[in-house]
Write a structure and sequence with these properties.
72% of the residues lie in helices and 0% in strands. It is mainly alpha-helical and 132 residues long.
């Protein structure tokens, strides 16, 4: 997928998060995962370390060498995405207590991912007169 489409999809998911209520913690975690994955792909494409047709779906599904390659370029972004991904089986598919708190953590991690992806892409977008 082309980088701009990743950005558009991440932004759309983040707008949808705004309508979630306090008790919608499963949706918040799931949306953080989806938007975070799009931001991660956007960042990796902007770095030029992966082709348009080479996208992360889940960090846990990456071949070890591919994950290492991406982590050299974006270790904190991938760490944050991995942390969100680890929440999903516990709070979205499971019944572990503390879902609201986990959702707040997932949203904070998404904020870190978004900020990093936008910082990476900013120079290229400023040249074209586009926002992050």
């Amino acid at each position: 997928m082309i980088p701009e489409l990743h950005r558009e999809m991440a932004e759309r998911i983040e707008r949808s998060l705004a309508v979630c209520q306090e008790n919608d913690w499963e949706m918040k975690i799931e949306a953080a995962m989806l938007a975070g994955t799009h931001w991660a792909n956007y960042a990796l494409h902007c770095h030029g370390v992966c082709a348009d047709q080479e996208d992360i779906i889940h960090t846990s599904m990456l071949v070890v060498n591919t994950l290492r390659k991406y982590a050299i370029v974006e270790p904190e972004l991938l760490r944050a995405l991995g942390e969100i991904e680890e929440m999903r089986p516990l709070y979205v598919r499971g019944d572990l207590k503390g879902g609201r708190e986990a959702a707040l953590r997932a949203l904070a991690l998404l904020g870190e991912i978004n900020e990093r992806a936008c910082r990476i892409a900013r120079p290229a977008h400023q040249d074209r007169g586009q926002p992050c």
